[in-house]
């Protein structure tokens, strides 16, 4: 039987405790789009769907989550590429490019685009044929912009949803197109007084939304994705979605 000095035991325990604490308290800078309902600012309080989801992932995984906010999805991936964030926590979809470049998590939420037009516009919009000839405002560098331009539709691109909405209400553009999750939340909150979300429109860009880690960050990816799987299975993510009307 091997005897261990009584002086070694406390030292070994201290090392194990320090290692465990360091692992549990590892920082994770989560990049998020600064838009409701993902991020909601009330007075000095910070909340929202994406904040709640990543707070839950951080708590379950032991990662200490902090947040970095950007204006749109292209800026989000740029921040990840530049090392300003450790994970793009929202607005990433699975494509050959993103699969080759990043470690993609399980689906966080499904999403599809919404079509918004002025209240006075009573035309019936269903799909691509109906929106040709319409000038759109949308977010710069997104697949919404790529889809419209690919199909020969006039597009004006902006950095923020606020600017997109201003263009659609001022007449600079005839319509707006961006995330249906954001659009329906804003409508429910009374933040689209001059615009309507077209119920007859059939989305062409339905897709799952996930988070993206650098290929070199497999440890953080494994921990966060394992927690996402667990929180999806036990109903935590569903409860967060329901909280925000999703």
Question: Which SSEs are present, and which pair or pack?
Answer:
Blueprint: H1 8-24, E1 27-33, E2 40-42, E3 45-47, H2 49-61, E4 64-70, H3 73-81, E5 87-92, H4 96-101, E6 102-104, E7 109-111, E8 113-118, H5 128-131, E9 136-139, H6 143-150, E10 155-158, H7 161-170, E11 175-179, H8 180-188, E12 195-197, E13 207-214, H9 218-233, H10 236-243
Parallel strand pairs: 1-4, 1-5, 9-10, 9-11
Antiparallel strand pairs: 2-3, 5-13, 6-13, 7-13, 8-11, 8-12
Helix pairs in contact: 2-9, 2-10
Structural summary, described in words:
The chain is an alpha/beta fold and 246 residues long. The chain folds into 2 domains: 8-110 and 208-243, 3-Layer(aba) Sandwich (D-Maltodextrin-Binding Protein, domain 2), CATH 3.40.190.10; 113-197, D-Maltodextrin-Binding Protein, domain 2, CATH 3.40.190.10. Helix content is 41%, strand content 25%. The chain contains 10 helices and 13 strands. It has helices spanning 8-24, 49-61, 73-81, 96-101, 128-131, 143-150, 161-170, 180-188, 218-233, 236-243; strands at 27-33, 40-42, 45-47, 64-70, 87-92, 102-104, 109-111, 113-118, 136-139, 155-158, 175-179, 195-197, 207-214. Strands 1, 4, 5, 6, 7 and 13 form a 6-stranded mixed β-sheet that branches. Helix 6 links the parallel strand 9 and strand 10.
> What's the number of helices?
10
Domains, number? 2
CATH-defined architecture of the largest domain: 3-Layer(aba) Sandwich
Considering DSSP H and I runs of 4 or more, what fraction of the residues is helical?
40-55%
The major sheet is characterized as:
6 strands, mixed
| Tertiary shape | globular
H/E series = HEEEHEHEHEEEHEHEHEHEEHH
CATH superfamily of the largest domain: Periplasmic binding protein-like II
Mean of all residue-level pLDDT scores: 88
